[in-house]
Each structure stands twice: as C-alpha cells, then as structure tokens.
Amino acid sequence: MRYRLYYWPGIQGRGEFVRLALEYAGAEYVDVLRRSGATGFPKKFTPFAMPYLVAGKRVLSQTANILLYLGPRLRLAPRAEAGRLWAHQLQLTIADWLAEVHDSHHPIASGLYYEEQRREAKRRAADFVAHRLPKYLDYFQGVMRRSGGPWLLGRSLAYPDLSLFQMVAGLRYAFPRGMASLERRYACIISLHDRVAAHPRLAAYFASPRRIPFNRMGIFRHYPELDAAGNKPKKT
Fold it and tell me: What is the pTM of this model?
C-alpha cells in the first residue's frame, strides 16, 4: 500500500501525528501537497478538513480516525479489539489536549490574528500552563505507570506513544519555561519522548527536510509573553 497524505505543506499541525506513524513504520507514502506545491483540494475531496489519507479507494479524515485505521496495518496497535479501542481513546484525549494548546493563542476565534486577541491569549495561556497542562501530564503519567511497561499500552510501542512524543516536543517549543518547570515531575513521559526520538527511522526523519520545523503558523506557537512559567491566571 502506498499512502497519500494531504495536509498543509508549511506546518506540522495535526498532519504530523500521521506522518510520525508512517515514518516510524517505514511505510511508503507521499506527502502530496508538499511535493506538488499545491494549496487547494483535489476535485474529489470529501472530508471536512485536512489531514486526510488516501489508502487505495478509501479516503479517511480526522487524525484519530486515520490512526485508528493505520494502527493495525502498521503494527502500531494491539490485535485485540479492546486494546485497539484503548489506543483510540488515548488518541482522542490527545486530540482534546491539542485543541487546548491551539486555544491558548487563539482563544476568541481562529479567523482572527493572534495580535487581535493577545490580551485574551495571555489569560488563556496562563491558565493552560498553570492548570490544564499539569492535568493532562498527570493523566498520561498515570497511564504509563499502570500499563506495566515502558509505553502507554505496556511493552509494545503504539501510535499514541508517537503522539505523546509530539505533544512533548511541541509544548517544549511553545512553552519552554513552563515545560522546564514541570518536566521533573514527569520522568516517565520524558523518558518515552527520549526513546521515540532515538528510534533510527525517526531520528533520520527529524534530521531530514521532511520534518517541518515548528513555526508561528502551526498549532504549537512560541510567543514569549504567553510562556508564563508558574504564573497563575489573574482574576478579574
């Protein structure tokens, strides 16, 4: 199977979670819009938004749904249904987390520039770093401790592990001070991040032009004024 991935060519965004699975598994795929330089959608485009994956005659959209499909085919999900559903549940939780990251810099509307909602973003980001970020990290640290192995699902790496790696990498970029103040409490998660980063295929991917750098057009954005390490949101 040669997969065709459609996602915006200049950002990691939600498409990167799919790329990580394909790259880790050594799957053959084409990052279509990056190769063609196009910015529009193909004529037969049916999903609501990108990313979407073309696999033979199937067109799949929504990051978690794409990974649910790819997981068993790339050997990145358990064989048993219960395990596959657990992996999917973890991925959906990561999707919720990612949405909160986005809203830390665009709390009012996606259609407005950051500069048009800077004041509101400062309050939202302060709450995210002080309260929501530790809540998600606590949850995934607990999942790892209860799994009985070095990965979220136990002894074998699955696609939610790759997604958790991406969350850590992106949060370090967006909130370097905030993450530095928290990381010592989450040794299991940081260890997972480091093991994923050291995987030979992924290490080669990260060193290649295929890995788009973090930037201020993606979901993870670094604005120094939002990186309020340890600062609690002000009450008004």
Answer: 0.92
